Fold this protein.
Amino acid sequence: MTTENTWQTICSTSDLIKNSGVCALLANEEQVALFQVGNDNIYAVSNFDPFGKANVLYRGLIGETKGDVYVASPLLKQRFVLNSGACLDDDTFAIKTYETRVTDGKLEIFG
């Protein structure tokens, strides 16, 4: 059986916390970490920290270096770029990222 990716409504944009993370569950039971940075940028990434092997990235700290906005894991502090998933501290690791859009005040994720 194949699973086709589609746009999924996740939450109202008013449920997001600016410059912080929240966790949501996709239809396939995968956890995603959602981050609203500033007023306009909303990122969705896998909530799973590949170093700490736990679903905790939504609790990480948001930062910026060299123009890249990242989340630092609350466990071992590795930093993941929110728009690409690349790990700034070990380029052999990356996390999954998701395309996002806002429709009628609702956050949607393609996945």
